[in-house]
Amino acid sequence: MILSPRGLRDAASTALRLAVAGRVADLRPMPAETVADGPGRTVSRYRPPEGVVPAGPPVLLVPPPAVPAQCFDLRRGCSLAEHSVRAGRLSYLLDPGTARSGDADLGVQGWVRDVLPGAVRAVSRDAGGQPVQLVGWCLGGILALLAAADDPALPIASVAAVAAPVDAGAARLAERYAERCAEERAGLDRHLLRQFSVLTHLGNADFLAQIEAMDHFRHLAIAHPGGAARRIYRSLLGEGALPRGEVPIGGRRVDLGRVGVPVLAIAGRGDLAAPVRGVRSLAGLLCGAPQVRVEVAPGGHLGVLTGRAARSTTWRHLDRWLDEGIVRHGIRAPRAARAALTV
Question: Beta strand pairing status for 263-268 and 156-162?
Fold first, then answer.
């Protein structure tokens, strides 16, 4: 490995940061405050930067069940939440990970009929009655679509589903996600490979920060119980109900053809859990949506959402989509933000 003079300076700077701080990544979460709390959910509003008054329809980030909500806030510089806030969007997070005792048994019905509707109404109310733009990753995107189909009266402006799995084979891959993370972290080969990557990329702080952030996220994922998520995957995908577009929930069938809002679906080119062909087939089930757009971006299941390449691909697709929502619904600031500005 031969480094240029600039590369040597960067490597020396990175080595110093590792020696002093022990890491390169800035893992501080984006500041937020709780606006609603209920069974299986905590809804938080991200604080905008000083001098920024967010406007337009609010954005609610929806993670999948039993997965850390930090998937949307991986690290500073590669955080979709940070990007959304700095773009001037009124941004919220649904965090099911803070559920209290007894909430872990919430299944598909609990999510579609309680957790998501309650979160959507809380965000709309906090944003002065504006409709909510949902951005869901993995199963969070599927559940957001089912909630929109189950209750068309919910104040939903649009749904963006990133890496949403729709077939049983993909579900088996997705439900083993936490177990694979545990195996990778425990393996000596991975440990040695990581040390080698650090040594060979000392001149690339952004690369090393991403490795650290991914390791941190895997560690959080291991700590989350996976039983509830596996039950939801199996009930949605195990018998092929979702690929047919009709899912039995609470004694009646919910038809994805009843989704009546615009939908964006983003697939990862290297995603095994939600392959491109599956995402395209999902789009074919949304026959009642006024607009369905499918985009393909680089990355695997998590990388398509928050990998380094996502900043110039997936996030641009989302920006264009959310900006179109502003055109449809207006750019007025919520009453709370206007009041804070006049104080």
Answer: parallel
Query: Tens of pLDDT along 31-73?
Result: 999 999 987 789 999 999 888 889 889 999 999 987 889 999 9
Question: What angle, 0 to 180 degrees and rounded to 10, lies between the N-to-C axes of helices 188-200 and 205-223?
Answer: 160
* Strand spans (E) along the chain: 32-38, 41-46, 59-62, 91-95, 132-137, 156-162, 246-249, 252-255, 263-268, 292-297
Q: Which among 221, 235, 228 is positioned nearest to 104, based on CA atoms?
A: 228
CA 312, 314, 315, 319 torsion: positive or negative?
A: positive
b/e per residue 133-170 (b: at least 16 CB within 10 A): bbbbbbbbbbbbbbbbbbbeebbbbbbbbbbbbbbbeb
Q: In this structure, are residues 30 and 79 in contact, taking their beta carbons and an 8 Å threshold? A: yes
pTM, rounded to two decimals: 0.82
Tell me which residue has tokens 């080595």. 15
Output DSSP code: residue 301. T
Angle at 267 between CA 264 and CA 273, to 5 degrees: 130
Per the document, the length of the chain is 343
Question: Reduced to 3 states, what is the DSSP secondary structure of residue 29?
Answer: coil
Beta-carbon neighbour count of residue 231 at 10 Å?
Answer: 18
d(CA 143, CA 120): 13
Tokens 């240029």, residue?
Answer: 4
Rounded to 5 degrees, φ, ψ at 268 are -90, 135
Rounded distance, CA 122 to CA 318, Å?
A: 23
129-180 pLDDT, tens per residue? 999 999 999 989 999 999 999 999 999 999 999 999 886 555 555 555 444 5
Q: Which residues contact 5 (CB under 8 A, 6 or more apart)?
A: none
Q: How is residue 257 annotated by DSSP?
A: G
Nearest to 103 by CA among 178, 38, 44, 43: 38
Say which residues have a Cβ less than 8 Å from residue 99's Cβ, sequence separation at least 6.
39, 40, 41, 106
First to last CA, the chain: 57
